[in-house]
Amino acid sequence: MALTDAAKHGINKELYTALMNGDGGRVIELCRRIPEGPLHILTVHNDTVLHMATYSKQKDLVLELLRELPESHLDKMFHQNDIGNTILHEAATSNRIVPAAMEMLRRAPKLLSIHNKRGETALFRAARYGKIEMFEYLDGEVNKIFGSEGGEEARKSFYQRDDKTTVLHISILTEFFDLALLIARKYEYLVGARDEDGMTPLQLLACNPSAFRSRSQQRSLEHLTYSCVSTNDTTHVTEEECPCGKHFGTKNRDMNQL
């Protein structure tokens, strides 16, 4: 039987409080009283209980909620909130949630290919947040589809946003240079990829001299620069041609969302 608005409001309030307090037992108990269970929409932004549990990085609770899902509800796992994020997009922002991401994809493999409203897959989001363990897991799942060699065009939608920003561009923009180095070494074709302004990852790196002032990042930057220069990125850009301000304005927006 459908809940009345008053009953739904009351349960939403209890659920939200339990989630924020980390009271997983209470969350499970309340979900069992709702027809949609863990896929009940909880917030005005269309986040489900699973979205919120994943967002708050409660791994054990997320796994338990996934186990609570009946087979008849699996098609609802593709639900996207107001900005287009699935539960896998939320999981992608934390290395701690890798086991939950594994279970999500075991139950609903197509989550891997869904884009949010920014044109990002969960894999791209893992790169934007610099989550190496999560990136490597999701990257491995993509490779199961296309194989580890070749298929650049077919796999483009996983590694590139709608504005042609790649996972290598974004990891440089957000200054996660260890991940950028991993990507540059594994996917050399991304080193020469250009975003919508014609910028390669190395050119973006050159636009950010402040990054080279950090002693802690110096070794990664040296290796990253060498990897980029030693592949096919032999392009040059003048100061007048380099839209650095625009890109690092974008970087600030991306960093603010981390």
If you had to describe this structure to a student in words, what would you say it looks like?
The protein is an all-alpha fold. Among the domains are: about 50-65 and about 80-160, Serine Threonine Protein Phosphatase 5, Tetratricopeptide repeat (Alpha Horseshoe), CATH 1.25.40; about 180-258, no CATH class. Helices cover about 50% and strands about 0% of the residues. It has 14 helices and no strands. The two termini are about 40 Å apart.
Features:
single chain, 258 residues, mainly alpha, Serine Threonine Protein Phosphatase 5, Tetratricopeptide repeat, 14 helices, 0% strand
SSE blueprint and pairings:
Elements: H1 5-20, H2 24-31, H3 49-55, H4 59-68, H5 87-91, H6 98-107, H7 122-128, H8 132-146, H9 152-159, H10 167-173, H11 177-186, H12 201-206, H13 218-229, H14 244-256
Helix pairs in contact: 1-2, 2-4, 4-6, 7-8, 7-10, 10-11, 11-13
Give a quick summary of the entry.
By secondary structure, this protein is an all-alpha fold. 52% of the residues lie in helices and 0% in strands. It starts with a helix and ends with a helix.
CATH topology of the domain at 51-67 and 82-162: Serine Threonine Protein Phosphatase 5, Tetratricopeptide repeat
The number of E-state strands comes to: 0
Return the structural class.
mainly alpha
Please give the alpha-carbon distance between the first and last residues: 40 Å
Helix content: 40-55%
| Individual helix count | 14
Task: Please describe the biggest sheet, giving its number of strands, its sense, and whether it closes into a barrel.
Answer: none
> What is the percentage of strand-forming residues?
under 5%
- Supply the CATH architecture of the domain at 51-67 and 82-162: Alpha Horseshoe
The shape, in one word, is elongated
Task: Identify low-pLDDT runs.
Answer: none
| Average of per-residue pLDDT values | 86
CATH class of the domain at 51-67 and 82-162: Mainly Alpha
Helix and strand run: HHHHHHHHHHHHHH
C-alpha Rg, in Å? 20 Å
